[in-house]
Amino acid sequence: MSNKISEAFKNKKALIAYLTAGDPSLDKTEEFIIALAENGADLIEIGIPFSDPVAEGETIQNAMYRALKNSINLDDIFNMVSNVRKKINIPLVFMTYLNPLLTYGYEAFFKKCKETGISAIIAPDMPFEEQGEVKEFSDKYNIDLISMVAPTSAERIEKITKQAKGFIYLVSSLGVTGVRQKITTDISVIVSHIKKITNVPVAVGFGISNGEQAKEMVKHADGVIIGSAIVKIIAEHGNHAAAKLGAYIADVKAKMGGLEV
Asked: Does the predicted model carry a pTM greater than 0.85?
C-alpha cells in the first residue's frame, strides 16, 4: 500500500472526495481541491474527462461534457496536479477510463503520475482479469491500481482483494454513480468478507451524499467516497463553489464523527 494512501486511513475513517478535472475550469479545479483538502477530505479523486463515461450517472457525465468543452488534455491536468501538489499534502488519485491512458501511452502516463504526485488510479472499465498490461507500468512507477468490488462480485471477491493495493473501492449499489436516497446493499456482510482476506482499507462509494449516510457506512467500512453530491455543488455554483464545497465537506466530516476512529 502506498504510504500516501495509508496516511488517509491512519487512525481515522477516511473521507474521499471526487471532482471532475476542468469543470468549470482547471484553475477552479485546483481551487476546489484545496477547499476540500482544507475542510476535511482525506484523499481526493480527480476525474479525467472522457466522452463515454459508462460508469457515471447524469451528474458526472454532464461535468465531463462541460470539462471537455474547455479542450483540456492530460498534460493540462498533470500541470494542474503539479501545482496543487505544492499546496496540499493529502493523497491524490486519478479516476479514469482506459482510453485516455491508451492514447497517452501507458509508460508515459504512469511516469507522469509518479512525477506529479498521483498515488493511484481507478479505472472503472478495466476488468480485474485484464489488468496485466497496465499493471506492468503501474508497478514500475509504484502507482496503486485500485480494485473495485461490486455487490455482485461475491465469487470473485477473494481473487480481487488478494491483490488489492491502496484501498478497495466497494460499490454500494448496482448501476451508475449518482446520489441515492437509500442504500440497500448489506455493506457489513461484504466488508466482513473482504476483511477475512486482506487488511487493505475498504471505502464505500456510489450514492453517498450526506453526513448521515456517510456515518452509517463507516460503522462497517474504513471510509466513504462522495462524488455526485460534490459535482452537483460545482454545477450549481460554478466559479463560486469553493466556499460551498468547504462547508459541505466539513459538515459530512463532522457527522462521520470527526477525525478519530
From this structure: yes
